[in-house]
Amino acid sequence: MNDSTSKGLPGLRGAEHIGFTVPDIEQAHDFFVNVIGAEFIYSLGPWIKEDDWFTEHLNIHPRSVLKELRFYRCQFGPNFEVFEYEAPDQNQEQPKNSDVGGHHIAFYVDDMSAAVAHLERHNIRMLSAPTASSGASAGQQWLYFLSPWGMQFELVSYPQGKAYEASANRLLWHPANPAN
After folding, report:
1. Does 3 have pLDDT greater than 60?
2. Which end is more exposed in the chain, N or C (fewer Cβ atoms within 10 Å of the end residue's Cβ)?
3. What is the pLDDT of residue 135?
4. Helical H runs in 18-173?
5. Do 63 and 53 contact (CB within 8 A), yes or no?
6. How many other CB atoms are found less than 10 A from the CB of residue 159?
7. Which of 67-100 are b and which e, b meaning 16 or more Cβ less than 10 Å from the residue's Cβ?
8. Which of 70-79, 113-122, 145-154 has the lowest mean pLDDT?
């Protein structure tokens, strides 16, 4: 098929990283390394720009200060790019899932009970007990939890698969089987 008529990005392989801003890079480092189990790879910064570079390249206030950014590898992916900024117009409120731009990051775990016990040992706030999905997602359990700064995360597990898989022509990507 001709690239000018095909759908989607030419050469797309998948999500390489997820970037987000935190209020305290050291607190986030402790959380991602010691609670989540991500591997710290490298850091950059600080960056201060005297022109409109930040606005032109990142769509943020031109007098922002990128105090530091750190990259983490999260097992089979994607990587995390974690920023700490100071900006004159910075919003300190965490978005809810229902807000425009609201989000969460879901981590697949092989054993939900062991993962919940791990979060409990680290005094991580969980919003409920694990919840069983229904319909096409039957077979899955999930649980939302919050980072120390209030960012939403989720645990998901479906070691026996999900109901939709029985009749699907194509399966969702699965971190336990990254080649499929």
Report:
1. no
2. N
3. 97
4. 25-30, 53-58, 112-121
5. no
6. 13
7. ebbbbbebeeeebbbbbbbeeeeeeeeeeeeeee
8. 70-79
Beta strands in the chain (DSSP E): 17-21, 39-44, 47-48, 65-73, 79-86, 105-108, 125-126, 131-132, 141-146, 152-157
| CA–CA dist 163, 151 (Å, integer) | 30
Question: Could you give the domains of the chain?
Answer: 1-90 (no CATH), 93-180 (3.30.720.110)
Amino acid letter, residue 68: E
Give the model confidence (pLDDT) of 53-107 as tens digits.
999 999 999 999 999 999 999 988 899 999 999 999 999 999 999 999 999 999 9
Pairwise CA distance, residues 179 & 24, whole Å = 35
Phi–psi pair at 32, nearest 5 degrees = -70, -35
What is the C-alpha to C-alpha distance for residues 16 and 10, in angstroms, rounded to an integer? 15
Model-level pTM?
Answer: 0.91
Paired with 156 in beta bridges are 108, 142
Q: DSSP letter for 165, please.
A: G
**DSSP per residue, 129-157:** S-EE--GGGTT-EEEEEE-TT--EEEEEE
Tokens 């336990």 correspond to what residue? 176
